[in-house]
Design brief:
The chain has about 140 residues and is mainly alpha-helical. The protein has a domain at about 50-135: Cytochrome Bc1 Complex, Chain D, domain 2 (Orthogonal Bundle), CATH 1.10.760.10. Helix content is about 45%, strand content about 5%. A two-stranded antiparallel sheet has the order 1-2.
Length: about 140
């Protein structure tokens, strides 16, 4: 009598575990409903970065860098005589054309977005200037 009870209890336990396993399986579906934090973007959204389609003029770009945008107030760039220390030192970080266009257009953290103040051509120009003067 006692033995039957133990077997029955074990059976109930086993069925319970199986059911729990199935349920947690459906809980871990590949597409979460809620995402906490930032979703990494594999490729840049080139539609929102029109400057990527343009050919920049480094000479005009230097004027953008040293002009009203005051990039040099926050960034160090030897070629422009800039020694700002709020953002990354561009001589050292040597950003790619794509990174300059993305940051200047959209901003990030302490970096303001210039997508409204600068034209896509000016953004392409400043990117050409930075990549050329830093070898990035
Ligand atoms: C108010 C200060 C400020 C101004 C003005 C500013 N930046 Fe920035 N910039 C930052 C900060 C802070 C970051 C770092 C952002 C981050 O990575 O979160 C940054 C990041 C960048 C980066 C990416 C560098 C890297 O290696 O990650 C580039 C390129 C850049 N800025 C270019 C420019 C240009 C060009 C201008 C002018 C049109 C400009 N910035 C104006 C503060 C500034």
């Amino acid at each position: 009598m006692r033995r039957t009870h133990v077997v029955a209890a074990l059976l109930v336990l086993a069925i319970g575990l199986l059911a729990a396993g199935c349920l947690s399986g459906t809980d871990q579906a590949a597409t979460p409903d809620k995402v906490v934090g930032e979703v990494p973007v594999a490729a840049p959204d080139t539609e929102a970065l029109p400057a990527l389609d343009l050919t920049g003029d480094p000479v005009a770009g230097k004027a953008v860098f040293t002009g009203a945008s005051s990039c040099g107030g926050c960034h160090t760039l030897a070629d422009a005589g800039a020694s700002g220390a709020v953002g990354p030192n561009l001589d050292e970080s040597k950003p790619s054309n794509e990174l300059v266009v993305t940051r200047v257009t959209k901003g990030q953290g302490g970096m303001p977005a210039f997508g409204e103040q600068l034209t896509p051509q000016q953004i392409a120009d400043v990117a050409a200037y930075i990549t050329q003067s830093t070898g990035g």
